[in-house]
Amino acid sequence: MEYNEIYDLESCALFVSEHIKYEHLWDPLTLPKYIPSPTSVLRWQAGDCFDMSIVLASLLIGVGYDAYVVIGFAEKRICLADEAHEPLVGHSRSRTSQGSSRSKKAQIKVFSDDAKEESVYSVKQRPVLDSTFVMTRDKFDRLDQELTKKEQEAPAMLIEEEEQSVQEEDEYEGQRVHAWVLVRAGKREMVDNVFVEASTGKVVPTNHPGYKGIEAVFNHQNYWVDMQRVDEPKDISFALEDFNKWEFLFISSMSKDQRRNSIEDARPNRSPPSSPLEGKRVGTGNRRPAGQEGGAGQDDQRVEGPEEVAEGEHILDLPPSWVDKLFIDREIFLRRYAEESGEPKRTKDYKKSRVEHFAENSRRDGMTEMITLYSDLARTNMTEIQEYFANRKDKLVSRFRYFRTGKRIDSNRKEHMIFENFDPGRPDALMKLVEKPEGREFTFYHKATLDGMVNRTESFTRNRDPAKPVALHKVIETFEGHQNRLTYRSITFEPIEPNTDAPPMKQQIDHPRKMTEKFERNPEVPADKDIAKRTFFTGSRPPRIHLIFHYGPGRITSSTRTYITEKNLSGDEFSVQVRTEQLAPGRG
Questions:
Q1: Cβ(202)–Cβ(234) under 8 Å?
Q2: Taking a C-beta distance cutoff of 8 angstroms, is the pair 152, 405 a contact?
Q3: Looking at CB atoms within 10 Å, which of 291, 355, 389, 390 has the fewest?
Q4: Where is this region: Disordered (predicted)?
């Protein structure tokens, strides 16, 4: 096939597990009566473990792997492709914990005795002052959290015990027929033999405890029956060339040395027989009448080399393949998933989590994957939702929503925190957005912005009534590479009472209470004329502007200047207060 994803073991196995909808065997104790061709399975996008394993083995053989379909027995969860008891692997399970409020003792740096001896003038550490009220409050908070945690874990423990009891009470334990794929070492830089589960796409070692036994393996060339008397697959040798451990069915696909050994073992005077084909005449297809010169029948009675099959001993020919060349249309390949609930998607349940995959460009919002994390095994109390997107106009690539855990389960409760990440290309150059109850934080691709803005943080004052709008409290902006050497700007707005209505947002922005700007040092301007910090006190009476200039070389003080506007009966009066650095050159 022309798709690069098929040429790697892990990605190929994952594609088969997602592209074909898994159907378990109707009778878990018997082999299926019919095996459809891999071409039909790919067209149907549905099949059981045998169908999916044959498709996967065919694809792997086509790209150079030494792959075989294994017929054997497995545990119930593997046969049903049930991964609800396994933890979610390969994804960011949860945001890094910020840690709880603890005593400041843990933050004090502890010096060793050697360091104390080296430092003669060591600084005496200040004692840590703990509030009895705060310690008591924290103690009750911890007790409340522990009780809440126990209440949440109690039903989860019961569910886990029920799951374990159900697993132990499987009436068909060790007898469930299953098929999977064996990839032997040697080709494509494979170092070890591995099993590949076609229903889930997992690659596991051959000593995986979920597989209980092996009856036979086969590929496009031969069929081998396991003759080893071992209890578990981990003790089985996969040296198919060893005829004492594996009994072959077709001899035409074997090497010259293998044929010679098989012919010696198949002599009539050999006792006891080791092959079920020995002394039996098996009908073969596509033979010409014996004795016809140049006929295929004459060639079929002989083995390459000087050895010949004895008269009356016939081997089974490998029948021609009835399978067409495997092909997947590009549109179907890009759609990837089988139909589920009327759309191409795939849903898998894991321990305390659920993963939903969507075909790219199949949803209006561009979502390709959604991971929902829960605090309980019953998957009822959400704690986190991870959403991933592709090909969105606003360049959104991921969104993480976090919920507060509590005793009550409410699926409609509002998110406690939201993280959004964006790819480059937005007009506003937004890279990351964090929304919290107390504010929002914007991070930008500063090299793509006109003013070089790196970060913008907005703090809110929320009304006690959640239905009422929030009010801006403070805005902090940082810059890098600004044309005016601006590095920092903060705007503080008039505070409001928690139980009052917030004024319109535009009115707040037009009438701030305080604004501060900070600038980098300009080496081309004298320090006492280069502004380092500029503050506008518009909410104070009288309003004023306060300037702080940069420090000069070797100076510990800087010049300042204050502009004050006062109102009187005749109108506004403007005054200036200047404080010059006393040790500046040319002064004093």
A1: no
A2: yes
A3: 291
A4: 259-311
Residues 475, 490: Cα–Cα separation, whole Å: 5
Give the start-to-end residue ranges of the domains of the chain. Answer: 1-75+170-250+323-328, 259-317, 340-579
Give CA–CA dist 545/536, Å, rounded: 5
Segments in 119-255 forming alpha helices (H): 132-168
Encoding tokens for residue 506?
């535009």
Pure H helices in 253-321: 256-265, 296-300
DSSP letter, residue 233: G
CATH architecture of 1-75+170-250+323-328: Roll (3.10)
Q: Please name every residue paired with 21 in a beta bridge, in sequence order, or none if there are none.
A: 46
Q: How far is CA 57 from CA 60, 137, 219, in A?
A: 5, 62, 8
The one-character DSSP state at 110 is P
Written as one letter, the residue type at 336 is: R
Q: Which residues does 62 contact at the CB level (< 8 Å), separation at least 6?
A: 1, 6, 326
Q: Which two tokens stand for residue 473?
A: 């409290």
Q: How is residue 224 written in tokens?
A: 């081998």
Q: What angle do CA 322, 325, 330 make, to 5 degrees?
A: 145
Q: Would you give the DSSP letter of residue 498?
A: T
Query: What is the residue-averaged pLDDT of the chain?
Result: 76
Model confidence over 388-433: pLDDT tens digits?
999 999 999 999 999 876 544 454 556 678 999 999 999 999 999 9
For residue 422, give the 3-state DSSP assignment.
Answer: strand
Cα Rg for the chain, rounded, in angstroms? Answer: 38
* Single-letter code of the amino acid located at 465: D
Specify the amino acid at residue 361. N
- Cα atoms in the Cβ-side hemisphere of radius 13 Å centred on 348: 24
Q: Which residues of 485-504 are buried (b: 16+ CB within 10 A; e: fewer)?
A: ebbebbbbbbebeeeeebee
pTM to 2 decimals? Answer: 0.68
pLDDT digits (tens, 9 = 90+) for 170-193: 778 878 999 999 999 989 888 999
Q: Are 372 and 385 in contact (CB under 8 A)?
A: yes
Q: Is residue 272 scored above 60 in pLDDT?
A: no
Instruction: Give 25-65 pLDDT, tens digit per residue.
Output: 988 899 999 899 999 999 998 999 999 999 999 999 999 99
Most confident of 84-88, 158-162, 256-260: 84-88
Cβ contact 72:211 at 8 Å: yes
Split at pLDDT 50, 70, 90, the class of 465 is low
